[in-house]
């Protein structure tokens, strides 16, 4: 009787027995865990039980495994499992056999995924959407009714494009079949596919979220495509056009995708606006206005650097699982885009796109006068404003939401961090509909959406109220999610200021949001008044250049305010620079004729709402600094307390720290050291590079060799050994805390080299994680091998020999090093001006901008190098470190220029006869190995520059290959008599 009864109940659920202890986990979690395994381990797990066999044969799992392990262009083999196994040794291939089937197992999660993978979208299109359609829209009508206000579908803009008829799958296959395009997918791995292979994939695939071409470099790999279209007249104003193509952030994309592919919910980078023109197929669009987070989407904003991360279901999953739950009043603005139509998406609008069939489109993002301030706001430091721009008042935590609402609408705009700060700001909207609290969550969200409707305004003045007033562009962490870096941001604003003088009022507003330009202008004005300098003119009020500190070009002066890294770093920057200048004149070094003349220096500080200026030449300790906690414990008041030897200890203390750990003094606000130098009438090398002749460039290489020769022979300031007794105590304390257990003890080495080696060892400790964080273009295969490449003890690199009294000595002395000789720190003058200045060197000055009244010297002149600029990053160390920025940035990896430089440099980097007994073999005798190790441990992403110049090294199999390609020329150099 039991057996027939059991059969009548159906098959027994096999999940518990088949998964054992793992049965407590939902299927979704088990599938996520499996993605962390290797293909070989997944194959083994498939043999464990029937349920594990089912989970381990899921196509989405093998898709993830394949894309993670891919090395080279992708060729789809009909299934992701076959494609993944194709890249493995033959021993891992499965024998051909029929798949197994099991009863007694049900999974709603797997069923939904299977349904999404095989559903067709014929019924997803609709004729009437809620996005307005316009034909032959005029520019005036566009600006008045739509720009910055709402999306619109426009017809008739692209009827004359060749792409209107040429961009079909068959035609593109004929013309670009062997061209490899970039593929968009959720993995961080960059995927390339030849177009013919991608077309084959589109025909064979049954993925729920298919790969699609989303290539911002299509103009480089297929330049003919750029001739097939032009920017519609409505969108031609673009503030990024002042940048060269290789300088501007990604802005245009070729988009090709099959049915079910698309872009999940997002807001375009940096709050830019966008246009998207469809050439083939149909797309379904859903859009929400700024601040209204779509159902099912979660926004994360990191409170340290403002990095924004959006968690969202795929576009297909959202339309299937979330869209049906929306009340009519909560549904998005929608439309179906047809071939030949162009959709405009305003700044800050959420949008989601689903391809209803195979589609081909082109899109571009742009910055114009309507969204410029929003773009600048989004790149300002902090996180509160970024959350509010994307999520409206939902960006506030549950406890602070009502209080914030009262403050905002009662006219209060002073938001303290205590009210709004959480470790990670999260805007949480409900997840899956099978959540037991789903209905209550929707009710809560609806209440908050009502609050959004009442109070949120996508207005620049409203959004600017949420800026963190304590954070500053120059010394706050920069979000990796920003579309450009800090230096690039400053360069962009400088070029706009020069190139668009008629729009300076708008550009100034943006600079105030992004750079706090108005605050720095206040401080500049105070410095000018104290030193009886002319007040800044309209041309002078924006900081210039790409440097890490605000620099202002006045008529005859240059003023630099030190802010990078906070007050402590600023004091050691200017203190070391002033000590260096004093030493140059004391020993009458010829280098002093090629360094800007210092006219004044001091400290500006804010106290009780008013500014005060006190002169300071680097000697002694001003009262305003004495009250801080930044004064070295043992320092001579009549010397340079913030000079280079104390700076070396700071470098050691901060070595290996993250930017957040090392910027402890960044919040010591209200005190700013500054320096005033004489300005000359020339150009920096960065402005002249492309127009110089080969002879002029060779002259620059010789000039740098001569000046570095003088720099590296300059005597060091007296060494106060009491400073380093404190350092030794710190080392002992560090060892006792087991933080530096791997650092060898080389206490018999000269003390200046000892601190150098210890600093390198601290940087070595976290090298793998740091390179991983920097990521592309550094190859992952090399990151995995970096620990075995660099030495365990950096003393082995320094050519140490046994001296008197058993004291170990490094053959070469420590020397002054500039550390930052790049293309914006080399000053050049036309030949006539150079002759004048060579007779009267005290008129040396700093950089001149390309539009400040000296353009007449650009034409018909030969250019000669004259000055080296910006010594605020001065340090003491191995002189070969100065070669790294010169070779990579100024010479762009040209070995001929390097050879020419070395002929003028004439100083050896190590002993002529290399000691053969050095532990570690031949590599320790190679200058190329020493230099490559310095590149790997550099504070800046030097490796990114290397793999950017030598792109062929992105497939290198070893660090030795990179080392010899980049630095091999050094192994032939022995110095010159």
From TrEMBL:
GO terms for molecular function: metal ion binding; oxidoreductase activity. The keyword Cell cycle does not apply. Residues 220-383 form the JmjC domain. PROSITE patterns: FBOX, JMJC. Pfam families: Cupin_8 (PF13621), F-box-like (PF12937). GO terms for cellular component: cytoplasm; nucleus. InterPro entries: Cupin_8 (IPR041667), F-box-like_dom_sf (IPR036047), F-box_dom (IPR001810), JmjC_dom (IPR003347), JMJD6_ArgDemeth/LysHydrox (IPR050910), Kinase-like_dom_sf (IPR011009). Keywords: Iron, Metal-binding, Nucleus, Oxidoreductase. Its cofactor is Fe(2+). It comes from the Eukaryota. Residues 19-65 form the F-box domain. The keyword Hydrolase does not apply. SUPFAM superfamilies: Clavaminate synthase-like, F-box domain, Protein kinase-like (PK-like). It is found in: Nucleus. Belongs to the JARID1 histone demethylase family. This is F-box protein. It comes from Quercus lobata.
